[in-house]
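Quick one before lunch.
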Amino acid sequence: MGFLQRCVARSLWPGRRTLGAPRWGQPQPQIQLPRRLYAAGIPGLQERTLIAVKPDGVQRRLVGDVIKRFEKRGFKLVGLKLLQANEGILSEHYHELRRKPFYHELIQYMTSGPVVAMVWEGYNVVKTSRAMVGETNPAEAKPGTVRGDFSIHVSRNVVHASDSVETAQREISLWFRSNELVDWDCCDHKIMYEL
Ligand code: DAT
Ligand code: MG
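Model of the magnesium ion complex:
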C-alpha cells in the first residue's frame, strides 16, 4: 500500500491506524478502498451530461434504444425520470434560442408529450455523447448515431445532449434536484478504465 492510499485509509478509518504497518507473524489485512478513490488518478471520470429523449422519441418507443447505447458504451446512469416538461423549464433550457424563428414551435413540440431526462456520467461523456447523438440536423447525422438512425427532420430529432461541460452542469441542475442524482459504484468501473 502506497503512501497516498495509507493516508486515505487513515482518513476513512481513523481508528485503524495500523492498517498499512506490517506486523511480523500476522496476516496483513486486505484494504478495500472505495472504487471512487481508485479512480482519483484519472481526471474527468465523473464528468456528467444531460441526455433527454424528446417527445417524438418517447412516442416512438425509442427510450430503451437510447439507454442501451449509453449503457453499452460504458457510461454510468446517475439520474433518470419521465416528466411532462412545462414552458418554464423549457424556456430556461432553450434560453439561447429564444430569438430563433423556430423557437415557438420548438417549445410547442417539447411540451407535446413526456420527455425522459437522464444524467450520464463518465470520462469525456459530454463530447462522446454529442458524437453518439449526431448532428442537430438528421440529414447531416451519420448512420450509427441516434439522430442518423432514427430521424429525418431537424424539428423532430429524438434526443437532446448537452453541448459543453458548463452547459451540462447548468442543464443538470435545471432538470434534476441534487437528491435525484445517485452516486453509486459501478462494478465494471475498474475494467472500463485503466486503473
Ligand atoms: P442541438 O440539439 O444539437 O444542441 P441546438 O441547440 O442548436 O441543437 O438546437 C436545439 C434544438 O432546436 C434542436 O435539437 C432542434 C431544434 N432546432 C434547431 N435548429 C432548428 C431549425 N432550423 N428548425 C427547427 N428546429 C430546429
Ligand atoms: Mg443545443
